[in-house]
């Protein structure tokens, strides 16, 4: 019942926010000082909202599994209304063209997973710890499983 409730809440957030991933964890220090490793970001992705320079977006690049959280630094708008943009991490020296797929110099709206609308500092550190230390993850799952199996109902 807990799992199905969590799934329903997640799917509801997807519908409300318009983002395929309404909550993400910052995994690197590339956005410091705006966001730190372990910060939990809340995203929206309404397609009617234009992307603006200075906005923080989460995007996926073909060939990479993990979404990237960076700031839009340049907008390139064509006469036909097509908008392309360039991103960069606040703590990085150069723009993200080296992160995009080979031959790609700009991102398009289809690459965006969402835009940062709010955050909770360091709440996502649990996720990072579980990814960095898989033994900790398995131990935590074993303890939770044992608790469920051994807990007596009154």
UniProtKB/TrEMBL annotation:
PANTHER family: SIGNAL PEPTIDASE COMPLEX CATALYTIC SUBUNIT SEC11 (PTHR10806), SIGNAL PEPTIDASE COMPLEX CATALYTIC SUBUNIT SEC11C (PTHR10806:SF12). Keywords: Endoplasmic reticulum, Hydrolase, Membrane, Protease, Signal, Signal-anchor, Transmembrane, Transmembrane helix. Belongs to the peptidase S26B family. Residues 15-101 form the Peptidase S24/S26A/S26B/S26C domain. It catalyses: Cleavage of hydrophobic, N-terminal signal or leader sequences from secreted and periplasmic proteins. PROSITE patterns: SPASE_I_1, SPASE_I_3. This is Signal peptidase complex catalytic subunit SEC11. It comes from Bubo bubo. One of its GO terms (biological process) is signal peptide processing. GO terms for cellular component: signal peptidase complex. Component of the signal peptidase complex paralog C (SPC-C) composed of a catalytic subunit SEC11C and three accessory subunits SPCS1, SPCS2 and SPCS3. Within the complex, interacts with SPCS2 and SPCS3. The complex induces a local thinning of the ER membrane which is used to measure the length of the signal peptide (SP) h-region of protein substrates. This ensures the selectivity of the complex towards h-regions shorter than 18-20 amino acids. Catalytic component of the signal peptidase complex (SPC) which catalyzes the cleavage of N-terminal signal sequences from nascent proteins as they are translocated into the lumen of the endoplasmic reticulum. Specifically cleaves N-terminal signal peptides that contain a hydrophobic alpha-helix (h-region) shorter than 18-20 amino acids. It comes from the Eukaryota. Its main location: endoplasmic reticulum. Pfam families: Peptidase_S24. It is a single-pass type II membrane protein. Residues 1-19 form the signal peptide. InterPro entries: LexA/Signal_pep-like_sf, Pept_S26A_signal_pept_1_CS, Pept_S26A_signal_pept_1_Ser-AS, Peptidase_S24_S26A/B/C, Peptidase_S26, Peptidase_S26B. It is found in: Endoplasmic reticulum membrane. It is an enzyme of class 3 (hydrolase). Its EC number is 3.4.21.89. GO terms for molecular function: serine-type endopeptidase activity; signal peptidase activity.
